[in-house]
């Protein structure tokens, strides 16, 4: 079991490149595209040269005179290079980027801020609201007329927090000329960044009356990266301190933005931390949307400090799953959670349990329950966790540490993940996302060092969400009057919690269903509590549901953005309608007047 958690490792001496350079192949390099708008409002790629200096105030659309990168190779040459795997050396099947291209990207890659902006340039219709000169105002006016969903603009800001080197990178979208009665806040997963939600921003901002925020968590993405230190000695203390490192920053950001209540959506580790935020800071959420959240089910090997670390996990599928085969498959077989989708509601619990048992079994490929045969290979299999992986995990050697250690081979190492993760996307988007990923992974280590404190090897939670999910939305709130006098404490009346999973998700949908059952029982208990007043029963809003997104894996928001966005938009509309109804009945206070 994990005993100590060093947050830094000793790097080797300066990497010697002579042998690596000798193996460089002669394939042409791949340049970074600078996406721009087409007349239809969607982005296309326009290759330009790299800017001599990049600032954070650069507009999202740039002219050819602004940049200075060598012209790109032809698509035919790239295709030939991709097929010529032997020329790339050993391991080309796993790391398709050639040695020469990797070294060139390491030497001349764009800044993390510019890499992020290149991804955001693929967002249709929306434009940055920066300068107030006549030219920009004219562009925004033209865009407002072209945008079929209203006048929408985005802003990007570094929001300073208290303390040294603490700030959150914020991306926001607002509907100009409309009052924003509701707020959606989006959190990314481990080691990722807000740019990965680029296919969700425009569709989700279509809902009237909402303002959207997306944040890079502290120590990740392009947020500030202060040193990550844990001072607690016991395991539970380490968990609380590690969670607080992120959620305290989120709460401080909320106070800085003067947001009273909001809907919080988190993916993977962001979902885990969203639950932690709801428990520590009650009374701030209207709804919780957990997209393939980490840490739901319990694994005794991960929870008990006296036991060894877990020996099997499906976590390896994050690096081996081929997204193109999932998103663009032509067969109707489905994936790990297909049986759950098709099951009758009363049978979903048994089906979810069978999915979990099938995924961990290495012998049986058929399930003879009810006389049906289920192919095992439709479920992401659990694989043994190599001993060296557990050692590196507990020693806090993150995958990003390896990227930094490998120097000019770092981009090649990252291509092992990006080539599978984004291979279902158009070439231009895939290339820009690879550059963005590398720009994040190579940055100074900070929030990434939280991993072994919260999760055991294989991504099993040390404090499983399933053991505390029923208390989300049930905490005591102390309200204060305008003169600061503490009134009688009130208890939260619950709020909806939505669990989203991909059809081929390596996260176990059985954990989501088990959480749904615990939440429903807690709602029934609240409704039958004889000590509650009639007003408290009117305020009762607890609920839970599990939704499986078809043709999607763990990153369901980018695998099937159309279906994902439709589900989230529906949740946003339901939240708005519930608030309107509660204010009409006097259960909730009226909205504050619009500030001029």
TrEMBL record:
Quote the Pfam families the UniProt record gives. Answer: Abhydrolase_1
Low complexity: compositionally biased ranges: 26-68, 351-373
Q: Name one GO molecular function term.
A: lysophosphatidic acid acyltransferase activity
Ranges where the record places region Disordered:
24-89, 336-382
Where does the AB hydrolase-1 domain start and stop, copy by copy? 183-561
Question: Is Hydrolase found in the keyword set?
Answer: yes
Which GO annotations describe the biological process of this protein?
cardiolipin acyl-chain remodeling; lipid homeostasis; phosphatidic acid biosynthetic process
Which controlled-vocabulary keywords does the entry list? Hydrolase
Question: What SUPFAM superfamilies does this protein map onto?
Answer: alpha/beta-Hydrolases
GO CC entries: mitochondrial inner membrane
Determine if Hydrolase is one of this entry's keywords.
Answer: yes
Family the entry assigns: Belongs to the peptidase S33 family. ABHD4/ABHD5 subfamily.
Q: What is this protein called?
A: Alpha/Beta hydrolase protein
């Amino acid at each position: 079991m994990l005993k100590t958690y060093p947050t830094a490792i000793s790097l080797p001496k300066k990497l010697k490149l002579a042998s690596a350079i000798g193996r460089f192949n002669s394939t042409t390099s791949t340049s970074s595209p600078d996406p721009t708008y087409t007349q239809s409002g969607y982005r296309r790629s326009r290759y330009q040269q790299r800017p001599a200096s990049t600032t954070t105030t650069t507009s999202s659309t740039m002219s050819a005179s602004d940049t200075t990168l060598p012209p790109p190779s032809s698509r035919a040459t790239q295709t030939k290079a991709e097929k010529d795997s032997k020329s790339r050396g050993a391991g080309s099947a796993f790391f398709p980027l050639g040695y020469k291209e990797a070294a060139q990207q390491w030497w001349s890659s764009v800044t993390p801020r510019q890499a992020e902006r290149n991804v955001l340039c693929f967002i249709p219709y929306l434009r940055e609201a920066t300068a107030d000169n006549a030219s920009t105002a004219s562009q925004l006016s033209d865009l407002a007329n072209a945008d079929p969903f209203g006048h929408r603009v985005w802003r990007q800001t570094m929001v300073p927090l208290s303390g040294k080197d603490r700030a959150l990178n914020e991306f926001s979208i607002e509907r100009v000329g409309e009052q924003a009665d509701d707020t959606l806040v989006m959190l990314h997963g481990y080691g990722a960044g807000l740019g990965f939600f680029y296919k969700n921003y425009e569709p989700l901002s279509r809902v009237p009356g909402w303002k959207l925020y997306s944040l890079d968590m502290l120590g990740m993405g392009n947020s500030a990266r202060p040193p990550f230190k844990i001072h607690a000695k016991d395991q539970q203390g380490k968990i609380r301190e590690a969670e607080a490192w992120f959620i305290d920053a989120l709460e401080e950001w909320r106070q800085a933005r003067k947001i009273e209540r909001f809907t919080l959506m988190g993916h993977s580790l962001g979902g885990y931390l969203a639950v932690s935020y709801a428990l520590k800071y009650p009374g701030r959420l209207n709804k919780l949307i957990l997209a393939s959240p980490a840490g739901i089910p319990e694994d005794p090997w991960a929870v008990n400090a006296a036991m060894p670390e877990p020996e099997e996990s499906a976590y390896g599928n994050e690096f081996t799953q081929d997204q193109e085969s999932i998103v663009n498959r032509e067969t109707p077989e489905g994936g790990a959670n297909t049986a759950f989708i098709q099951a009758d509601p009363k049978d979903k619990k048994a089906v979810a349990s069978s999915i979990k048992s099938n995924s961990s079994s290495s012998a049986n490929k058929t399930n003879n329950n009810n006389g049906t045969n289920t192919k095992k290979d439709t479920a992401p299999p659990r694989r043994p966790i190599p001993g060296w992986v557990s050692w590196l995990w507990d020693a806090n050697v993150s995958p990003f540490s390896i990227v930094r250690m490998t120097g000019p081979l770092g981009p090649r190492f990252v291509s092992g993940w990006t080539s599978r993760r984004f291979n279902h996307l158009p070439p231009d988007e895939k290339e820009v996302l690879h550059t963005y990923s590398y720009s994040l992974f190579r940055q100074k280590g900070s929030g990434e060092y939280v991993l072994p404190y919260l999760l055991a090897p294989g991504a099993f939670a040390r404090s499983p969400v399933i053991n505390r999910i029923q208390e989300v939305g049930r905490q005591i709130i102390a309200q204060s009057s305008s003169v600061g006098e503490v009134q009688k404490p009130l208890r939260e009346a619950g709020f909806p919690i939505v669990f989203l999973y991909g059809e081929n998700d390596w996260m176990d949908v059985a954990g989501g269903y088990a959480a749904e059952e615990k939440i429903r029982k807690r709602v029934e208990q609240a409704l039958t509590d004889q000590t509650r007043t009639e007003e408290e029963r009117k305020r009762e809003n607890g609920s839970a549901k599990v939704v499986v997104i078809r043709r999607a894996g763990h990153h369901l928001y980018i695998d099937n953005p159309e279906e994902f966005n439709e589900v989230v938009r529906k949740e946003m509309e339901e939240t708005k309608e519930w608030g309107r109804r509660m204010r009409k009945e006097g259960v909730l206070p009226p909205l504050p007047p619009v500030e001029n």
